[in-house]
Amino acid sequence: xxxxxASEFYPHSNQEERPVIDYFTGLFNQIIFKxxxxxxxxxDPGKRAILKTIVGNDVFMQEYGGYPNAEKKRVYLSEEWxxxxxxxxxxxxYEIEYPQKFIKINHSAILGTLANSGIETDTFGDIITDENGxxxxxxxxxxxDFFEEQITRIGRAQVKLKEITFKDVLxxxxxxxxxxxxxxxxxxxxxxxxxxKQSRGQIQKxxxxxxxxxxxxDIADSNIMVKENDILSLRHFGxxxxxxxxxxxxxxxxxxxxxxxxxxxx
Length: 266
What we know:
By secondary structure, the protein is an alpha+beta fold. Helix content is 23%, strand content 30%. It contains 6 helices and 15 strands. Strand 11 (212-214) and strand 12 form a beta hairpin. Helix 5 (188-196) packs across helix 6. InterPro entries: Nucleotide-bd_a/b_plait_sf, RqcP2_RBD, S4_RNA-bd, S4_RNA-bd_sf. One of its GO terms (molecular function) is RNA binding.
């Protein structure tokens, strides 16, 4: 295997993604020179896609986020295949203990507390709930002392982080809804306009302000064409999976989608 150059991957990426490309290219080069496996932080699907592009078929990628269908996962990179157990990913699942009878906490409050605690967001994974007040999240085992000592309050609630086993991890319910939209064009601004009931002009401004993602990547072009299996994210509205696209007799497009709508704060 030969050393990778980060600049090789720049033409297919956004300017904002270059630091990520630089970092992942460095990881790949480290593996082939030191011949030692690497365990990454928690990576979202967009970053994992970039990592996969860089390592190609020269390095094995195995990933785990603490439960099936996790969004953020730690990735184990190695030259040789290794049979891994969940414990090998050094993930600590936590349940948040707080006085549920007297106060409520929500995803936004938990995320805000973790993100503003002085650590990088890649050091913790998904935040999940049973929709009945129970909340759990996943953290790097290397930082358990920090999390347990520093996270003592979320919003107005005093909390305690309880270490749990993977057997105690919740199975999050799929709260998506199935929808069908008829759109005049498969341009991303037209599709999002129809789904969100905002004008194309409003959507274009949101794209310009980097509030829209396509397949986990920031975009700056309203002319991008959307296709089946694409995932769109519109800040403060939700996430959309394009499941099926078919043409209508009148020259428009019938789009079948799944929508995970952003929940408003309590």
